[in-house]
């Protein structure tokens, strides 16, 4: 097996503001509605009316361009990178993404980063091609991890723990798994404290095998491109949703039959013992895939022929991507709540780049509203999507006021308090570092 001895910290990043398109709006809406209806019928914790692109859209329904409190989602995500210790950033996206990025950087600056743009390939919108577009501009060395991140994580601003993680040294792929118990330790006692609602399809035994963790797939990947088969990454990423990653594992194993022999001891141990251990902790639990972390690390590392590890973080921002209308509402409600309490300074109380984001809203968005069709009347545009996807209400009322019935839920209060505390911590840490 290949070994790792990587440079740390991570200094380069590819951020993707691109994803696939369906052949027609009718097909995309049918898929979105069907998924939401299945989740509702099954009584799932997280209901998702997905935001999907289509080839025949008059306005490209690109989720990264959606506005949260009048600011594009992509600007939050890009601001997180600007506010980090990264040195080089490659942005992958559309013409409109490039236009927004240019205006954003003209106003807030680059914070000393080298930032380059590469246009998405409309004929090849898959993950591997997107990664390779960015990789060509970054030219990483064989002993260097690159952070790959989709651009729909607007409040994932605590990146230093990823960039400086000790795991980066000895592993060529680090999966930052989302664990319900570590992010929301009180959810069983207080459902409102789980302010990001998601469905957790995977299970893992804790290291001492005394407790069971509910897991969701990672949203960002520190990866050594030189030591990973890109087709495997595409398999794992594209199949990771809704618990389908086990099928990707089988497909990978069939492609690498000699490696499968090395995995058999871990697979056999899993088949003989895992379900029994789960039933001892949580009888009758239903899940799509589960494994002890120890077995998973050893087995998947041998399957991929490179050292891999997982990290279980405690940060809800890592799981809080914007895939669906419900996700957009979470952040719109959060930012409205902050401004209701703090006025114009509300955003900077919950986001460390908030002051610059608010400045961009005032100085940059008026021009972009004349150049990008989605922004000419975003409230009406979004209301129409809500009606098409049969949400039963619209988020904006007269005067473009945010009137969602979910705006005043307790989850928004919990989210506000969590991000306010997190933001204050990071600002204090930065002040202490500058003092030295």
Write up this protein.
Helix content is 47%, strand content 13%. The chain has 436 residues and is α/β, with parallel strands linked by helices. The protein has a five-stranded mixed β-sheet with strand order 7-6-1-8-12. Strands 13-10-11-9-14 form a five-stranded mixed β-sheet, with helices on both faces. The chain has a two-stranded parallel ribbon with strand order 2-3. Helix 10 runs antiparallel to helix 11 and helix 12 packs across helix 18. The longest helix has 26 residues. The protein starts with 11 loop residues before the first strand and ends with a helix. The mean pLDDT is 91.
Brief characterization of the structure:
The chain is α/β, with parallel strands linked by helices and 436 residues long. It has helices spanning 25-41, 73-82, 95-108, 127-138, 160-163, 167-170, 180-183, 230-238, 245-255, 257-281, 293-304, 325-342, 346-350, 354-363, 365-371, 373-376, 378-388, 410-435; strands at residues 12-16, 21-22, 53-54, 67-68, 71-72, 88-93, 114-119, 146-150, 173-179, 202-205, 212-216, 221-223, 289-290, 308-312.
Main traits of this protein?
five-stranded mixed beta sheet; single chain; 436 residues; 47% helix; alpha/beta; 14 strands; 18 helices
Gap between N and C termini, in Å?
43 Å
Q: Report the sheet with the most strands, covering strand number, pairing sense and barrel closure.
A: 5 strands, mixed
Counting DSSP H or I runs of 4 or more residues, the number of helices is 18
Query: Averaged pLDDT, please?
Result: 91
Q: Segments where pLDDT lies below 50 for 5+ residues?
A: none
The gyration radius over C-alpha positions equals 22 Å
Total number of strands: 14
Secondary structure class reads alpha/beta
| Order of adjacent strands in the largest pleated sheet | 7-6-1-8-12
Percent of residues in β-strands: 5-15%
Principal-axis shape equals globular
Q: Roughly what percent helix?
A: 40-55%
């Amino acid at each position: 097996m290949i070994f790792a001895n990587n440079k740390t910290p991570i200094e380069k990043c590819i951020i993707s503001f691109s994803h696939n398109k369906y052949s027609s709006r009718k097909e995309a809406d049918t898929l979105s509605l069907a998924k939401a209806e299945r989740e509702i019928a099954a009584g799932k914790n997280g209901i998702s009316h997905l935001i999907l692109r289509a080839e025949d859209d008059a306005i490209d329904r690109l989720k990264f361009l959606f506005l949260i409190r009048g600011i594009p989602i992509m600007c939050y995500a890009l601001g997180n990178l600007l506010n980090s210790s990264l040195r080089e950033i490659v942005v992958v996206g559309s013409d409109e993404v490039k236009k927004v990025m240019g205006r954003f950087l003209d106003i807030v600056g680059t914070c000393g980063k080298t930032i380059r743009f590469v246009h998405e390939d409309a004929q090849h919108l898959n993950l591997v091609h997107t990664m390779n577009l960015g990789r060509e501009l970054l030219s990483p060395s064989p002993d260097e991890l690159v952070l790959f991140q989709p651009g729909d994580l607007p409040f994932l601003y605590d990146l230093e723990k990823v960039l400086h993680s000790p795991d980066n040294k000895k592993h060529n792929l680090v999966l930052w798994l989302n664990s319900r118990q570590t992010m929301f330790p009180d959810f069983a006692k207080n459902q409102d404290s789980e302010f990001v609602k998601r469905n957790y399809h995977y299970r893992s035994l804790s290291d001492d095998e005394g407790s069971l963790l509910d897991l969701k797939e990672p949203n960002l990947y520190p990866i050594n491109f030189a030591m990973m088969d890109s087709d495997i990454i595409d398999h794992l990423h594209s199949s990771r949703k809704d618990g389908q990653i086990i099928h990707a594992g089988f497909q990978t194993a069939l492609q690498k039959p000699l490696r499968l022999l090395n995995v058999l001891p871990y697979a056999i141990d899993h088949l003989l013992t895992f379900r029994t251990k789960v039933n001892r902790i949580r009888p009758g639990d239903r899940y799509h895939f589960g494994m002890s972390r120890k077995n998973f690390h050893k087995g998947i590392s041998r399957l991929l022929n490179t050292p891999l590890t997982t990290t279980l973080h405690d940060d809800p921002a890592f799981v809080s991507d914007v895939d669906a209308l419900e996700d957009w509402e979470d952040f719109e409600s959060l930012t409205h709540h902050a401004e209701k309490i703090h006025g114009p300074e509300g955003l900077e109380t919950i986001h460390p780049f908030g002051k610059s984001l608010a400045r961009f809203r005032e100085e940059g968005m008026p021009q972009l509203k004349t150049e990008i069709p989605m922004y000419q009347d975003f409230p009406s545009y979004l209301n129409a999507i809500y009606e098409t996807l049969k949400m039963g209400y619209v988020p904006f009322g007269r005067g473009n006021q945010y009137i969602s019935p979910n705006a005043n839920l307790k989850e928004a209060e919990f989210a506000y308090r969590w991000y306010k505390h997190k933001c204050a911590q990071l600002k204090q840490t930065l002040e202490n570092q500058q003092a030295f």
